[in-house]
Amino acid sequence: MHIRGDHAEVVVGGRLDVRSAADARAVLHSAVDDGVGDLVLDLSELDSWDATGLGVIMGAHRRAGRCGRRLVLRGVPPQMQRLLVATRLHRILAIEGGIGVESLPRV
């Protein structure tokens, strides 16, 4: 996994899984705590995530809300969009441009 950015935008690439969760959590919490306004989480370089990685994103979402901020997902890959729809998290998370549920391929 690679992660870069600041308190306004963070880009995550590679795999967001149990092995990289602690590092990703630390960076996201720091970005949330140090900024104001929306925090954009760009996932366009992300290859995959597991349940732990999704938990990191949800934790950052909750932390942002407690800090008066909003976590906004950008560039969510199609396979991850399907997971967000299946878990109904697309209704909770702010996703730039939204998810066209009808345009997603059926699994």
TrEMBL record:
Gene Ontology MF, one: anti-sigma factor antagonist activity
PROSITE patterns: STAS
Superkingdom of origin organism: Bacteria
Span of domain STAS: 1-107
InterPro entries tied to this protein: Anti-sigma_ant (IPR003658), MlaB-like_STAS (IPR058548), STAS_dom (IPR002645), STAS_dom_sf (IPR036513)
Gene3D superfamilies, per the entry: STAS domain (3.30.750.24)
One Pfam family hit: STAS_2
This protein's name: Anti-sigma factor antagonist
Protein family according to the UniProt entry: Belongs to the anti-sigma-factor antagonist family.
